[in-house]
Amino acid sequence: MYFCDLIINTNPIPFKYNMIKKTITLLIFTILTCATLWAQNSQRFVSRVFDNITVQSEIQYSEAAPVGSDDPDPLYFDFYEPANDTMAYRPLVITVFGGAFVAGNRSWCDMVAYGDSLSHYGYAVASIDYRLIPVYRISETNFIRGAYMGAQDVSAAVRFFKGNCETYRIDTNRIFIIGNSAGTIASMHCVWMDDNERPEETFEDSGWLGIGGHSDLGGVHTSGFPEYLSYSPRIAGLIAQWGGILDTNIIGNDDQTPICLIHGTADETVSFYYGAPYEENFLGITSLVLPDMYGSYYINQRLDNRNVDHEMHVFEGEEHCFYIDGFTTLIPEKFDTCFRIALNFMAQHLNYPAPPIIDPEDGIAEPEQPFFTVYPNPASEEIHIQLAEPQQSFTCYLYDLQGRLLLQQDNATTINLTPFPAGVYEVKAHSNSRVFTNKFVKQ
Question: Is residue 154 located within the same domain as residue 285?
Answer without folding.
Answer: yes
